[in-house]
Structure formats: C-alpha cells, structure tokens
Automatic annotation (TrEMBL):
This is Helix-turn-helix domain-containing protein. SUPFAM superfamilies: RmlC-like cupins. PANTHER family: HTH-TYPE TRANSCRIPTIONAL REGULATOR NIMR, TRANSCRIPTIONAL REGULATOR-RELATED. The keyword RNA-binding does not apply. Pfam families: AraC_binding, HTH_18. Keywords: DNA-binding. It comes from the Bacteria. InterPro entries: AraC-bd, HTH_AraC, RmlC-like_jellyroll, RmlC_Cupin_sf.
C-alpha cells in the first residue's frame, strides 16, 4: 500500500491509520483520532483517545494503536525539530489541530510536496501550544519520575496512594520533588495541570474544555488555580485567558 509522511494512503487517497502493532519512528509522531475511539499503548502505558483527541510522541517511542470499529485516526510524522516536552505528551482535543487535520483529510495529499504544507502547519500549532507557561521539570529519580507521570494521568489520586503504589513513603516523595524540581508535589502537579489547560487555550479551546482536559472538575476551579499561580485576577482570566496570560 503506498505511503506518505502523513500516513497510510487507502481508499481513494484518504489518509488514515486503522491500527498497527508495536513499532517506532525516527521522527516525532502525532496520533490524532478523527472519529470514534482508539487505544494507544506507548512506552508500556495505555492511553484512551476520543474524537479529535491527539497524542504527541517523541522519536523512537515504541507504540501500538487499536481503533474501535467505525473509528479512524491519522498518524502524521512531524519535522525532527518539533519535539514534545516528554516522550509521550497527551494533548487532548485542540481546535487548532483539528482544523489542520480536517483540512489534510479533505485534501488527501499523496506526494511529499503536497504533504509539506500540512507538516509545517502542524509544527506551528504544536510549537505554539507547547511552550510551558509555568515552568516544571520531571524528577530524575526513576520511581518518582514514574509517580509524577501517573499523578498527571490520575489527578484525583492522593500523594499517599501514589507513593504506596510505587513502594515509597509520601515523605520520601516530597523530599525528592523539592530536591529535584524545586517544588512540593502538590504545587508541581497543579502547575503541570495548568500548563495542559493553557496549551488547550492557546490552541483555541474554551475554558470549560481546557478545565476538563487538565483534570479540573469545573471551569471555576481552573480559573482559581490559574489566578493563584499567575497573579492575574479571575475576572481578567474569565474574559480572555490567553490575553491575560500574555498571549
């Protein structure tokens, strides 16, 4: 079956992935669900993706994709310079990405020359949304690093329960977070979650959807968190969050 750098060409040049076994790419890679639901396993962890949700993979990350019947996903390879912040970066549903991917699906490019404008457009969107507003770094300690990633996937999990699953004490985890990130665990997680919300907003998303993407129960909860951490009044954030946070 012929291929391009934007995906696998099937059915009158429609570009789509119908699912594939474990493999990896030398370039950064985006998995985007057009419709339906998909299950992606990457670096030994499983991610559930719904309609218009995307996940950004670094080069050489082993991954496998399974799409539920009736669903469809696109899998463009990206420019080598367009690297995610971590090996597997979930993006949620970002309107700006949806716009590019919908246009690409309709255009069905088949040559490298036709693919390149879409690849560049994806890079611009990803670079625009992925700048961290609140600087955070992952801990270096292997067990605490794994705990940190799990904490972002399960925002309701307590430090105590996470520490127990990783065979550490909460005090040990707190000490490593302070030593290696400069932040206590709770503030580190809050800042990382708010970065996910800001990414969504930069991509054209609304506050309610940004809150949901970042694991907040309500729009108001996200606004209060952003206000506490940034010092910007809630009223300004509610009116124009991206503008209030500096664009």
């Amino acid at each position: 079956m012929p291929t391009t750098s934007l995906g696998t060409v099937v059915a009158e040049n429609a570009i789509r992935f119908l699912g594939h076994d474990t493999h990896q790419h030398d370039e950064p890679h985006l998995v985007y669900v057009v419709t339906g639901n998909a299950r992606l396993t990457a670096d030994g962890q499983e991610w559930r993706l719904g309609r218009h949700e995307a996940l950004w993979l670094a080069p050489r990350v082993p991954h496998a994709l399974r799409i539920e019947p009736g669903g469809m996903a696109l899998g463009p390879l990206l420019d080598p310079a367009d690297q995610p912040r971590c090996r597997v970066q979930p993006l949620g549903a970002v309107p700006a990405l949806t716009e590019v991917m919908t246009t690409a699906l309709g255009a069905a490019p088949t040559t490298r020359e036709q693919v390149e404008p879409f690849r560049q457009a994806l890079g611009r969107v990803l670079r625009g949304i992925s700048r961290q507003y609140f600087p955070v770094v992952l801990p270096v300690h292997p067990a605490v690093r794994a705990l940190a990633r799990e904490a972002l996937r399960t925002p309701s999990a307590t430090l105590e329960s996470l520490a127990e699953r990783h065979r550490m004490s909460a005090r040990q985890v707190q000490r490593v977070f302070l030593d290696e990130t400069g932040l206590p665990f709770t503030r580190w997680r809050n800042r990382a979650r708010m970065n996910a919300a800001v990414e969504h907003l930069r991509g054209g998303g609304e506050l309610t959807a940004a809150a949901r993407a970042a694991g907040y129960a309500t729009r108001a909860g996200l606004l209060r968190g952003l206000s506490r951490e940034s010092g910007v009044p809630v009223s300004e954030l509610a009116t124009d969050a991206v503008g209030a946070l500096g664009g």
